[in-house]
Amino acid sequence: MEMLPFILATVFTAATPLLIAALGEHVTERAGVLNLGVEGMMIVGAATGFAAAVLTDSSVFGIFAGALAGMALSAVFALMVLVFATNQVATGLALTIMGLGLAGLIGQGFVGQPRAALPPVQIPLLSEIPVLGKALFTGDFVFFLSLALIGLVAWGLNRTRFGLLLRAVGENHGSAHALGLPVKRIRLVAILFGGLLAGLAGAYLSLIYTRFWSPGMSAGRGWIALALVVFAGGHVWRLVLGAYLFGGITVAQLHAQAGAIGLPSQFLSALPYLMTIAALLFLSISGRKGAGAAGSLGQPFVPER
Amino acid sequence: MSRTGVLAALAVSVGLAVPANAQEKLKVGFIYVGPVGDFGWSYQHDEGRKAIEKAFPGRVETTFIESVPEADSERSIEQLARTGHKLIFTTSFGYMEPTLKVAKKYPNVMFEHATGFKRDKNVATYSAKFHEGRFIIGKIAGKMTKTNTLGYVGAMPIPEVIAGINAFYLGAKSVNPDVKIKIAWANAWFDPGKEGDAAKALLDQGADIITQHTDSPAPLQQASARGKLAFGQASDMTRFAPNHILTSIIDDWAPYYVERTRAVLEGKWQSQDVFDGLAKGKVKMGPYVNMPDDVKKLAEETEAALKSGKIDAFMCPIVAQDGKTVECKGGDRLTDEQVVGMNFYVQGIEGTIPK
Asked: pTM of the entire structure?
């Protein structure tokens, strides 16, 4: 199977933007904030990242600029939901619509400009391992960054004091406030982190996954990232599993088609989504009731005085 | 008097719905399936829209709505009709039924539906013989492949795409009897990520030349990243892979759009069906590059022969996948109707058409 490393590499690039955006939203939701603007932040990250990369002629700089742009948009969201205590669902949806428009504006002068690929990073020695080495230890630097982010989020949420506070705020913001925790400040950090990663995921799309900018290129990936967070039900490992499973099935169905196995391609294309729904059903039937989402998720926080 | 009078007179004589106040500009609307920045299909239609503005300065006003999903296009089309657009171009196959439905409600609005086959009093259809270009690139691919495996990224299994696959395969087969074709459907006209993944899957399965019937440059770019050759689609995509592109099939809608707008302005618009290609310049070929001279010559000769009508992509006998010979209704070639409604693979292509 000499094509296995290539297939795995394709799976990883397909899954990485989903994984990064989902990790960010996971942290935001753990803090009790539902930000449905992932798609919008992602596409703004893609446009800004691409524009910055072209202007400075540095894809690496572009990727960071894209991440910052996503964070800037999430700051707008934070202002609305934290300071003005607006409805999070409506604000998030508005953020997506605004992001899609804004991205078109930012990327206007950059449509159709090509960009060269980033040189792949090879981890010495490890990348020499047959099959897996090529797939796992050769890749773009954002792929490795995403692996580090998995560890950072898992460790940060479960093993640090700040993570504990963040989860407490998400579980019950009233109690957390009564205990004297800075609810809004912690949520601000969580929202900005979510925006940063959504922007990073977007920049990955326009600078690494497909190296050009075009409006609408996120093609709903922000929503899939949101679905992955639900799928994860509060566990980072499940989120990672979900992202790679989704990427894996997406790529596998294309291979099945190219290999002419005779199943309808529409069915194969729907397969990743069907699997996601099936997995969600399975989890909610077998899991405890009420497990998963943070207790105060989506509720505006207005402290009593 | 002058223009105002002439137009008013025309409006009365022909009974067309030219705005009562003839000072008003003719509003022409466009519905695109992708963003105008796809640098492929929708981009080329938008070039046609710009050509209208240029051809009739001050007399027309154009509007477009981009990225309109085919399944949910009715309200976008109706929105244009309701806001005073008198000529509306709906530029994707999937807009067929919605266009006809809206057209029934707005009998004074003229509709032009691209690549469809259903017409009405106020619905004309137009398409281009992209398959002529695909026949040429098939020959190039057949000559250039080393693995004898060609990869084809398809969007939707509709006749236009099927005919393209057949023409490409027949072209390749005519110069290389051992050639095989692998097809992956993205089930989207525009999703750069997925289109690219489909191209990667085809490359992984041994294809060394990629062609596509989707709208973004992603498949071309992915082929280039692996050092493999590919073709541009709908517009000249050279800039995305200057060293790995062989040529592009370019759609040029501008002359047709200008002609149809003029017909409305002059009150001569009628429902019709237009299907032409290389001969009329609606389909053009990009420069033939990154190939040896003999292949280039073959491509140029094929292009000239198609243009003159001496040959056709579907010369009889055409044998379908099931081994049955297709009835030859057009003398020595299939008729346009047979091509527009093509729903079978030709013999030699593996796999089944998704239903």
From this structure: 0.81
